[in-house]
Design a protein that fits this description.
- By secondary structure, the protein is an alpha/beta fold.
- It has 2 domains: 184 residues, Rossmann fold, CATH 3.40.50.450; 34 residues, no CATH class.
- The protein has 11 helices and 7 strands.
- The protein has a 7-stranded parallel sheet with strand order 4-3-2-1-5-6-7, with helices on both faces.
- Helix 3 runs antiparallel to helix 4.
- The longest helix has 18 residues.
- The chain starts with 26 loop residues before the first helix and ends in a 5-residue tail after the last helix.
Length: 283
Amino acid sequence: MEPGPSNRPPTANPFITSSYIPADRDTDFLQRDELRSVRIGLELLKPELIQLEQGIRSTIVVFGSARLQEPAAAHATLRRLEEEAARAPNDPSAGRKAAIARRQADLSKYYDVAREFSRLVSSTCQVDGRCEYVTVTGGGPGIMEAANRGAADVNAKSIGLNITLPHEQRPNPYITPELCFQFRYFAIRKMHFLIRAKALVAFPGGFGTLDELFETLTLLQTGKTQNVLVVLVCRDFWERLINWQFLVDNGLISTDDLRLFQYAETAQEAWDLIGRHNGVPTS
């Protein structure tokens, strides 16, 4: 039965609905499709203001696979899958899983390279309160975790830019808490990767790494972004993955476009390339 007027709290007003909530406090209202432009603006502004408050002056973006584990874990996974494959010699899927784990164990060394790279940069550039060349990653596991972890090793700041996904994504534990952000829109997240970037260092990775890499190369090629050095770590991986010369030979890019990126094998090589490009001492 509908409660009568005498049963209502004295302060209740049957005519006050969600329309009475101030617009900036009405979360349901802010989720409407018509408010997309407002959400985009807020998503651009909030991380910008926080980074300014934290004194972040310049960054180095580190990309790479979320699936690459640190070496000890990768080799433990390999041993387990090899044992499973040995117990099921007639199961082709078990053999494939072991083969992939073997290749991932080989690539796991780059977890340590990413960690060392961030440690080198952070210990060199974050001194006396300065926040230059701060490591920024996608905030997830794998290579991203390694880079944030390298900064944490030397008590330096690092940034993580998470994105809301259909499956749950959690920030890795090594990001500076005040610089851990979550984005709704990939486009705005990409802008924040490059707003302060002096370099982009790409480790072996999948679709996400390739997306960010080619976005940056396109911006450099078209002059929309300037003076961002792109360093590809593990030349063998990248040249097997992408036939750059094929693009040149077919007139789809120019020979000069191949100068938009350089290769490195070690953390020190990558940092030396960036230092020379930007006139920064690397030790």
